[in-house]
Amino acid sequence: MLGTSTPIPRGERARERVLRAALEVLADRGMPGFTMEAVARRAGASKATVYRHWTSRATLLVDALELASEPFPRPATGQLRTDLIELISRLEALVDVPPFARLMAAFIDAAERDPTLWALHAHITERRREPVRQVLVEARERGDIAAAADIELAIDLLAGPAFYRRFIAHRPFPEGHAAAVVDHVLTALRRLQWTT
Amino acid sequence: MLGTSTPIPRGERARERVLRAALEVLADRGMPGFTMEAVARRAGASKATVYRHWTSRATLLVDALELASEPFPRPATGQLRTDLIELISRLEALVDVPPFARLMAAFIDAAERDPTLWALHAHITERRREPVRQVLVEARERGDIAAAADIELAIDLLAGPAFYRRFIAHRPFPEGHAAAVVDHVLTALRRLQWTT
Questions:
Q1: Which residue of B118, B121, B184, B189 is the best one to mutate when testing the A interface, meaning the one whose CB has the most A CBs within 10 A?
Q2: CA distances from B23 to A109, B30, B35, B101 (A)
Q3: Are A132 and A152 in contact (CB under 8 A)?
Q4: Which of A71, A83, A118, B71 could be cross-linked to A75 through a Cys-Cys bond (beta carbons 3.0 to 4.6 Å apart)?
Q5: Which of B129, B11, B23, B104 is nearest to A167 (CA)?
Q6: Helix, strand, coil % over all residues of chain A, rounded to 5
């Protein structure tokens, strides 16, 4: 570690290594295989190390998922359409990455069977909706979309197809899918200006 | 069975009882708990009965899911908008039924880990898309939506929000959600008439 100007404390490195191992175990085996033992083994750490940072499987899971689900940064293309295309393209790319897709699928299943995970998943998704919401709210303020535009519904229409195509229809994303989704939704959100 | 004009053969009744038990086991325990033993126990049948109809867990699963995922009948309201609202309302109601939702979630997870289930899930979803496709294709032929309308993308936009809201965002469906989704998508599909 000589030459590193800001050394990472040893505990922090161990913590992140365990969290990354937790994500790998989840992706590989889903919730049934997600045990403190399996995560310690994958991380090359002792069970004691894992238990030093997390008292239970649930608290470890929460931290691992927070690490994996940072929302996308707010785009700065300067235009509503291109900002949204950037966000939806990133979403389509993310759900297509095998480890993330498996993690997501395991989590969808686990959330149905555990109210804590249900609430955690809702919270993570809520954070992910935020950059899309910001872009749309500002566009509404500028008059780029209708004053009556329903922002939450617009987010459902923008984000829904990526998840549906990947996890329900199991279809690949055709070239230009994100742009086509955005163009359809924007047409509806702009058209509202004349009909309401 | 006296008085029944068309008696159901004994084997058929046993078969359906086992399939319904299979769906219950899947919904309760997900794929990890889905074993021939558990299904036989739930159905009050012997393992021999189960194995008489199905040679493996996978073939039993296929038949159980076919039973649970009959596509919606083609609506006949006589209007594009109300036909689509009927289909999307039924979809929202279906994904909100706890046993179906759990089954769906278990299947999403299992499909990530098993190519056979992936293909089966894709096939089931494809069948479910068919009534929506029919309604849209006929509307395009009549000129109710743009000749250039992308029907497959329209289905993604119509069906995506229901799954996304239920399994990813974990948000309830507000009153009128299905109608609002349909109105946004139709606005886009009609507007294309003037822009292309």
A1: B184
A2: 15, 10, 12, 11
A3: no
A4: A83
A5: B104
A6: 75, 0, 25
